[in-house]
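For reproducibility, we list the full input for the S-adenosylmethionine complex.
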Amino acid sequence: MKQRIEQGLTALGLTPPPQAAGQLAEYGRLLLEQNRVMNLTAITEPDQVVDLHFLDCAALLTIGEDFNGKTLIDVGTGAGFPGLPLKILEPSLTVTLLDSLGKRVTWLESVCDALSLDHVTCLHARGEEQAHQAGYRDSFDYAVSRAVASLEVLCELCLPYVKVGGKFLAMKSVDSAAEVDRAARGIAKLGGRLLPRVDYEIPGTGVSHRVVVVEKVSPTPNGYPRRWARIQKAPL
Ligand SMILES: C[S@@+](CC[C@H](N)C(=O)[O-])C[C@H]1O[C@@H](n2cnc3c(N)ncnc32)[C@H](O)[C@@H]1O
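The corresponding predicted structure, in tokenized form, follows.
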């Protein structure tokens, strides 16, 4: 795994810290081991874990954003994607990994301990509830999310966390144009502004993905996010 990680990161043009490839390989080992007893990922081949999890997430570091020393929240992180690979590859980040499933969050804590990562908070919470808490609302340089919900739902979950001047980075497929159109009105209501999207290819796979970039231009009005049932039933 380690060699494939190193090759992939080089192909992405990244120069990670010396310990990062080893930490990712150990994370992958722990993921596949735990996946035998807990549902963490549908991807069970080590090479695919490297390509479709680690390198996919690492590609966020290639889209022209400066993550150095920034704060980032990963909403619906699951087994830690994309937040944990980002933290490993950019250790100066202060990262919050949030998920509504307690068992996954407990496992993530054990991974962060095993990898001796500091400035990572693993938080068992619902995204739409935690965003109303002081210290979380309008507070992060970046919110990120992958494979959690449609963009219109996701924007209501994630944009409230972002401080004015910060960004929400949604990892999506390249055929998400209609989804982006549907989310446009809600993005404006939530204090966001769509910036040009960034498409990337995961090295050696032929698989292309997209980052939808939303800048926070004004504080999210009180009342958002709404309750989960409401968000889903009546998207903005
Ligand atoms: C399909 S998994 C994706 C996990 C990870 N982001 C990835 O790309 O592999 C979706 C995750 O989002 C979490 N989730 C769904 N709705 C949520 C909510 N409202 N608040 C927090 N977590 C949520 C689920 O518990 C699950 O772990």
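Residues 169 and 193 are 12 Å apart (CA to CA). Residues 76-79, 81, 98-101, 104, 126-128, 146-148, 157, 228 surround S-adenosylmethionine (CB under 6 Å). Both points were considered when choosing residues for closer inspection.
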